[in-house]
Amino acid sequence: MQITVIGCGHLGATHAACMASIGHEVVGVDIDSGRVELLNSGRAWFYEPGLNVLLAENIKAGRLHFTTSFAEAAAFARVHFIGVATPGQPDGAYDLSQLHNAVAALVPHVRGETLIIGKSTVPPGTAVELQALADSLRHPGPEASVEVAWNPEFVRESCAVQDTLRPDRIVVGTASGRAAELIWEIYQPIAEAGVPLLATDLATAELVKGAANAFLATKLSFINSMADICVATGGDVRALAAALGMDPRIGPAFLHAGAGYGGACLPKDVRGLGRFARQIGVGGAADLLAAVDAVNAARPDQVIGVARNALGTLAGRRIGIWGAAFKAGTDDVRDSAALRIADGLRRLGADVTVYDPLATKNAQAVLPEIKYTDCPLAAASGADALVVATAWPEFAAVRPAEVAARTSRQVVVDACQGINLESWRGAGWEVASLVAARPIGTHF
Questions:
Q1: How many CB atoms lie within 10 A of CB 245?
Q2: Who contacts 336 (Cβ-Cβ below 8 Å, separation ≥6)?
Q3: Cα(412)–Cα(433) distance, rounded to whole angstroms?
Q4: How far is CA 308 from the centre of its chain?
Q5: Is 230 one of the catalytic residues?
Q6: Torsion angle in degrees (nearest 10) through CA of 200, 203, 209, 212
Q7: What is the pLDDT of residue 52?
């Protein structure tokens, strides 16, 4: 099938490449000519494992190319995915302007029966709004008709290719059987591999992504709250999480205590869904999500407090930070707890140097006031303390004695369970952590 994907960010570029890889002819559309040029060369403008290979293969095969022209997109296909960003605004509301702009740019060019499939995360009611906009802009007469459907994405950064080609589920919200049939045809190769496809109404499909992210964020804030109780009582949150995760009603995922969640989705969706709930009068849900957000927002300051307690004062101290990305495996620093920790330490007078395997360039753009280095040992050189803020595997592999030879003092603060605390303590380090540091419980 011939399809387009409008918006070629983390979501859209990956979706375009994956749809081409299962046999569709795909045109990606973006208003940024620099991104389009780079994508047409077979490279993404961000880091995502496996994506560049898919881009290059499908561009070479002639199944994929990118353009800035909405007229070209409308002439090429009758099915258009939209995966533009819906960032959070200061009051928590989703900014839907890019969605409205994309529909407004596309619809005047369409002819014949056209299906627009939204993938962006939005509040319920957005599809109805976009349908009204499309109806007001489409070419008059029976030769042009537009239907808006919703097909939320569930991709994780650093796993986006896998999550697109073999997702846990595909959710499709439509107002007609014809739209559902078309979407089934698009995803048939994936569905026939065993991926369930759930057909719903529009509002449910719009809600499911935000609800999923809010639930995952709730698990993380819950286990971080339990970590605080463990620290106060001498418990071990790692053993607690292992025990909780053995319950099939709970499961082990997202029970990893640390400095808090970040990235482009969880913070935005907790706030966005909470604001929407408040707006429609569902105060209990709004209060719950506000509490989840408050727990998460407090975590970086707790890490800074741990560092202050270990050093006595932060003013004038040299502190190395390992990690800038919001999680390992990505170069994304949006809402990164690691950068909030770095900035908080800087504001309290510390001399901060950050190392990250992938995210340095993006971190410098967000927080240029601190120093960066391309070597983890250089970040620790002369430091009074080392803060492990992102759980990159390479940090767990570093020998504590090798780091000790570079630092001024042997103080390490683990904010993310990124290193083996017992090994560092055994090498003579003073170890501080947000989680209790006793050996994890043993299976018998």
A1: 16
A2: 262, 263, 324, 325, 326, 359, 363, 390
A3: 8
A4: 30
A5: no
A6: -80
A7: 98
Q: What is the rounded distance in angstroms from the CA atom of residue 420 to the CA atom of residue 399?
A: 10
pLDDT 10s digits, 112-155:
999 999 999 999 999 999 999 999 998 887 678 999 999 999 99
Distance of CA 113 to the CA centre of its chain: 34
Other CB atoms within a 10 A radius of the CB of residue 96 amount to: 18
Residue of 230, 265, 375, 416 with catalytic role = 265
| Cα–Cα separations (whole angstroms), residue 381 to 351, 403, 406 | 12, 8, 5
- Asked if 333 and 339 touch (Cβ cutoff 8 Å), the reply is yes
pTM confidence score = 0.94
Residue 123 has, within 13 A of its CA and on its CB side, a CA count of 20
> Which domains, from first to last, does the chain contain?
2-200 (3.40.50.720), 212-433 (3.40.50.720)
Residue 307's H or E segment, with its range, is: helix 283-311
Contact call for residues 284 and 411 (beta carbons, < 8 A): no
Burial class (CB in 10 A: 0-12, 13-18, 19+), 197: middle
Measured distance between the N- and C-terminal CA atoms of the chain, rounded to whole angstroms: 55
Which two tokens mark 277?
């709930």
Does position 439 have pLDDT exceeding 60, yes or no?
Answer: no
> Over the chain, what is the mean pLDDT?
95
DSSP code, position 63: S
> Rounded CA gap, 424 and 426, in Å?
5
Q: Kindly report the backbone phi and psi dihedral angles of residue 35, in degrees, each rounded to the nearest multiple of 5, phi listed first.
A: -65, -45
Identity of residue 171: V
Distances (CA, A) of 110 to 26, 145, 311, 329, 433: 17, 8, 64, 39, 57
pLDDT digits (tens, 9 = 90+) for 25-64: 999 999 999 999 999 999 999 999 999 999 999 999 999 9
